[in-house]
Each structure stands twice: as C-alpha cells, then as structure tokens.
Amino acid sequence: MAAKKGSAPAYKCTECGWTAIKWVGRCGECQAWGTVVEAGTVKPRTAPARTVERPALPIADVDASLAEAAPTGVGEFDRVLGGGLVPGAVVLVAGEPGIGKSTLLLDVAGRAARGGREVLYVSGEESAAQVRLRGERIEAMADTLYLASETDLSTVLAQIEQVQPTFLIIDSVQTIASADIEGAPGNVSQIREVATSIIQVAKERNIATLLVGHVTKDGSIAGPRMLEHLVDVVVQFEGERHSRLRMVRAVKNRYGPTDEVGCFDLSDVGIVGLPDPSGLFLTRTANPAPGTCITVTLEGRRPLVTEVQALLAKSEQGGSPRRTTSGVDSSRVAMILAVLDRHCQVPTRNSECYVSTVGGVRLAEPAADLALALAMASSLVDAPFTKGTVALGEVGLAGDVRAVQGVPRRLAEAARIGFQRAIIPKGSLGEEKAPDGMDVREVADLASAVRLLNLATVTELRPREGAPGRSRAT
Fold first, then answer.
1. 95 annotated to bind ligand
2. Rounded-to-10 torsion of CA 411, 413, 417, 419
3. pLDDT tens digit string along 433-444?
4. Do 65-275 and 280-451 agree at the fold level?
5. Class of the domain covering 280-451
6. 96 appears as a binding residue in the annotation
7. DSSP class of residue 368?
8. Residue 99, annotated ligand binder?
9. Where is this region: Lon-protease-like (predicted)?
C-alpha cells in the first residue's frame, strides 16, 4: 500500500524510491524483492550554502585538458573506453565469474605502473600473495604497483589516503563493506555506500578508478540499479567458458562511443588483445562443407567475418521437431525456418534443426539472417556454396531481403580476408562500388538467394535422398 497523502512514509524501496506506510516483502512499483527498508524520519529541505568553493565558470573558461584520456597500454581496452582512462573517471567492469576480469585489470594496472603512474590494486576476494602470483604469470610486476587485500571500506579509504594513487582498482565492489551500514557485504545498502564513497574520493582526487562488479544469473549487474547511473562508464565482459575468445563492450560511456568492441585471447599466460580476430570465427578447411555459410557482422564499428553452421536432419520421432541453437537467437532461427518453408518451398517443417556459430561468437544483429537461411538450405540439399562466398542481409516475414547498414565496410573486410563473391540485398551498395575483384550478386528476396546456391554446379534446389517434403524448390 502506498503512503497516504499527508502522512510520513515509514518504508521506502531502495531501488526505485517507492514508499509505503508498512513493511512489505515486495516493492509495489518495481516488483523487486527485499528492497523495502525503513525510511526513518523526514529531514527538512536542504538550505543553500553560504559560500561556494568552486564558482561556476563560463564554458569557454573551463579547462578541457582535465577530461583528456590517458592510454592504459592495452589497445583493445582503450578502443572500448574511447582512447583511455580520464582522470577522475569511474569505470564499472562487469562479467561472469572466471571470465577474466581480474586478469585483464591486473594487466592494465601493471602497464600503467610501468608507465610511471602510482597504482593501487585492492582485492577483496584474494590475498595479496595470490594477486602477486598472477602478476608474475602475466608479467604485470612493477615497482609502483601497490597491492592490498581489504574488505573494510574505511581501511580501503585509508589505503588510498596513504598511497595517493593516480589509478585505483577495486576487485570487487560487492566484497567491500562499511561497518557503519547494517547488512552483509553485497547487499543493496552496502554496495550503495561503498560505491558512493569511492566515487567521491575519485572525483575529489582525480583518480582514474576501475570497479569490478559481479553479475546475476540472468546476466544483469548485481546490486542497485543506481550503481550503473553513478559511474561514468559501464563495461561488459563477455565470453564462453569453452572458448578462449573474450569480448569487451561499453554499455555506457560518458567519455566516448558505446559502439566499440574489444577482442581478447585468454590463455594460461594472461590475456592478449586481438586487433584482427576475424580468423578465429572461420573453419580452416580446403573446401566448403554443406550447411555452412560466411557472413560479416558489425561489432560496433568493427567488421568481423563469421561462419555459421546449420544441420537439418529428418525427424525420427513424432511431435514438434527439435530446434537447438548456439550463438544465435532461437526465435530468429524459428522465423527463418518458417520463411524458407512458406516462401521458398524449402521443406523444413518436419526437419530437426541445429544451428551454431564458429569460435564462440554470438550473432545478434539481423544482418546474419541471410547467411543463416542459406546455411539451412545448403544442409537440406547437401550442397555446399561456391568457395569464397559471403552473404549479408536481413530476412523479412514476407520473404524479402532487406538492406543492412555498413555493407561497403563489410565487403571490404571480406575482400581483405580473401573472399571473392558476395550475396547482398538489392540496392544496399547505393553509389558505392564493390571491392576490386569481388563478384557481388544483389537479391531482392530469399527465394532468389536460395537459387544462387552453389553457383558453379547447381541450377536447381533438390533435397538429398531421404529428405522430407517436396522434391523441388524454385
């Protein structure tokens, strides 16, 4: 029940500020559990200060050099941050446990210290000896890199006061707690207090700060939503456990773009940036195999040549055929299967479908639709594409192939890797010219693209022997 008009609210939600006259387990506004706490007495309205220490200045008189980014020494990380770390900026680095956050940040700390900066690395999860062993393994040793293993907020602030660093790393914000706040480390009140205190010190002393944040099982950052609003940059660390590839993308960035992605290779000797990761997403075979197709995805402004694989097999059991995906959206795959069956006469409704990407990359943009559809058709008829072919385009429910952004940039990257043919949406090049030596075929609908399957040998699309459905698609 919300507070009545004229009465002082006794309880308040720490997530959204919703108030109630009695305690409830679940917020009536944001539906979060366990976030309603006692609000206390209502304080009087804040009066204006008698003096102002830093008076407002005309915008032309503000020193812009204070917001210039300093490179960290890790090129892929600098790409995501927009050139480097700004003095006083607070960056929240979030990711699943064991994905490599601590390894990356220790590498950044070591490079910054060797560059002449005073760096303080505070670990609330490991001892200083454990961090030192990792530092030796990834060659992050430096004389001006200071380690501290602390979980008390007041002690952390004292360490900052004593070391006077220009670069601070807190690993992680969920493990630090304040003795003045009730509750265990990691709860909403503790995270708010810890983050607010560290951000205040960072802004006052112009300390570039990196905060490590945990994520929940649904992938969101643990703690109050306000944490993401308080920091200047939110960086998401992504990757599959079975793959060495790690990708870093900025979700929020006050000092640079949010459309850049950094690629890293995580190994036993540390984490290394990958300026050219396209080769990781391709299968090294002499001849193309049925059920495979190459596309070019844009991760931020970076084009990545990626291979998708599909396997369509006759369903041996009744009921709905199985649909299994890895690295692609399952609902998108189901839609493409329906479009193939309805508009291209490719018999998919009785076939089990398995779709995956190579190298652990995840395809989220619609530009990969055409490659997915052609890989499915190729698997069904057991006919590979002509070697060196890429496909780009978004597939609509009416069977049309829609234009996507950045087609010239994608084709240029494919040509650089060595591809000679491309299937793209009609009119997507505009006035731009295709790369020299590349044969570009424009299609208006998916049926036309399917008929281009294996241009060198196949003129008709025929299901292989034993395949379900009709015998011909045009």
1. yes
2. 0
3. 888 889 999 999
4. no
5. alpha beta
6. yes
7. G
8. yes
9. 352-474
